[in-house]
Amino acid sequence: MPEVPHDKERLKEVELYPFQKGMEAGVDAIMTAHVTFPKIDGTKAVSQKTGEEIAIPATLSYKVLTELMREEMGYEGVITTDAMNMKAIADHFGPVDAAIRAVKAGTDIVLMPVGLEEVASGLLEAVKSGEISEERVEASVRRILTLKVKRGVIKEENPLSVEDKIANAVKVVGSAEHKQIEKEAAEKSITMVKNDAGLPLKLKSNEKIVVVGNTFISSLGDAIKKRHENTTVISSSSYKLTEAQLELIKNASAVVVGTYTFNVSGRSPSSAQMAMVNQIIELADTPVIGVGIRNPYDIMAYPEIDAYLTQYGFRPASFEAAAGALFGEFAPTGKLPITIPDYNGGVLYEFGHGLTY
């Protein structure tokens, strides 16, 4: 579990400074991190995974969420946890235990717990038993409802019945209008970082595209196949390609590799996924196009790739947008929201970089 070793004085001067300014400006909500602050809270718990004592992360810390954030820093808005199914929580705490600890610590929203119904029942039992007071629950409800009124999610006076509200939500959420906005947002986000492959793709029907990857690769492959029927998808959970698969790649007219990472080790050139990508780049005689499915930093691990798009998301609209950009249905206009470094301390691509057709 990550540790922030600094004392409170240093934290307030550096790490907590932007949060303090945000609070003073009236920020609506703040998400907790599953990191430890040993100089703030030295409380220990026993890990269900190792049986050893571990430090309590900020997400479950009363001293951090209530004493520091609420009482010292004066925060009155909503507190939400980061995803409770992340390893830093899920490996060491049972889902119900973690949720109860988070609520007692001061969070208002328990985000993405493992086993929603079990957690909801566990929290209810904790209230019935008095482990969590009704006053504590009411404080969170008040903050959440206040925010919903402030942002127009609910009106202070709404004559509709609960049943009518639900029916209206079913009609509105995911409507054609919403889907169109989602499509436009996904298309505008697509960032073409590199294009030495002559994108957009203009292939004849007898020319084959091979799409390679693992996580969400079928979604990317399906979106490409809609636009070019002669497409083969290779999904490799081990990132080890067979001789037959390598032969397909070698004979393809274009190769699209989808990579999915969520941490530093995943995008290391020595990771199995990135080693496979670099093997494909070395093998293929035709352009190899990379798609960063979730993380724009992926190109750090395979800078020699011919072209690279990043889509920032793994929902259907993002895959459709990436495929549409590959085939020139629209010109990419996205810009990098970060600087992408290389592994030698230099810069691969600057903040704000983005190519188009």
UniProtKB/TrEMBL annotation:
EC number: 3.2.1.52
Record's catalysed reaction(s): Hydrolysis of terminal non-reducing N-acetyl-D-hexosamine residues in N-acetyl-beta-D-hexosaminides
Database matches in InterPro entries: GH, Glyco_hydro_3_C, Glyco_hydro_3_C_sf, Glyco_hydro_3_N, Glyco_hydro_3_N_sf, NagZ_Beta-hexosaminidase
Residue span, Glycoside hydrolase family 3 C-terminal domain: 190-357
Pfam families: Glyco_hydro_3, Glyco_hydro_3_C
GO biological process, one term: peptidoglycan turnover
GO function terms (MF aspect): beta-N-acetylhexosaminidase activity
Keywords, sorted A to Z: Glycosidase, Hydrolase
Domain of life: Bacteria
Positions of the Glycoside hydrolase family 3 N-terminal domain: 2-147
Membership in a protein family: Belongs to the glycosyl hydrolase 3 family.
Descriptive protein name: beta-N-acetylhexosaminidase
